[in-house]
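Quarterly update from the structural biology core.
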Amino acid sequence: MIGEEIYPAGEWPVAQDGAGMSAVGLEALRSYLEAKGTRAAVVIRGGRIAAEWYWEGADAATQFPCYSTTKSVASTAVGFLVDDGVLSLEESAARYVPEWREDARQEVTVRHLLTMTSGIRNASAELGDAEDRIAFGTSQPLAAPPGTLFDYNNCACAAISVIVRGASGQEMADFLQERLYGPLGMTGLWHERSAGKTVPYSGLRITARDAARFGYLFLRRGRWAGRQIVSGAWVDQACGAGSAVNPDYGFLWWVNGRGFWPTLPRDAFSAQGMYGNNVTVFPSQDLVVVRLIGDAAGDTRNETTKVNDYGSLAIQACEGGR
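Predicted structure, tokenized:
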């Protein structure tokens, strides 16, 4: 249900009528998010802000750590390189990770890394203590044959930083600034680096509105204000089933092809981070919902909530506004 393609310039246009969403439904969504310790939420419908809420001293300028939501942004860097013809999903990642060339890790492809099916040993619990987290991640051996199991693995994902730098000639954060953040007018963000290398599996700090810009790009299948930023073909692949091993996961995006979120439309997909930092897209509803909580460690009010819960309320608000 794609309406007129409205894009923000400096600021998002704000709908005075809730963008056709039910006022009662939006209030139910607001109440739910507040009760779950949310600190920022933005609802985009038809290219306009239908609702925007902040709590606990946050505002539109607050940059939140969004944890693994970063992965979906890193995936997009790979998408640019695939679109450019510089990188292939089926090529060996060892082309860019030299230490993988001398052993069975040479069988790990770019696709394996994007779908979390690389088979690389998962030492994610040790990763945070490493002085150079990217080097630590890529130093891990194989624990399983590539393509045989799904393992949500930050060590394997670390290789994305190396690949993007090798294929683009730029540090990943700089490459994303040129290809994604600049064209979309995203200014309220910051990437963590380890030993000078962009961390691709976590570490992005971002405002709610800039997170919404990212989600809205994918809602519009890679188009932004008349320009194709990343190809529609990439969006379709990245936000669909990435492997038979786990069809609920795309290319560092969570997807709903098998009903992963049982009450949401099957075309829904989400960039998900720890503590419930999410950017969720509902193409059939022309809808993006951003929910940010930041770092909830030690705050018992802030529980990890499922996309299914707040997504259902957002869908009900859409339907109630008809």
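The first helix runs from residue 23 to 35.
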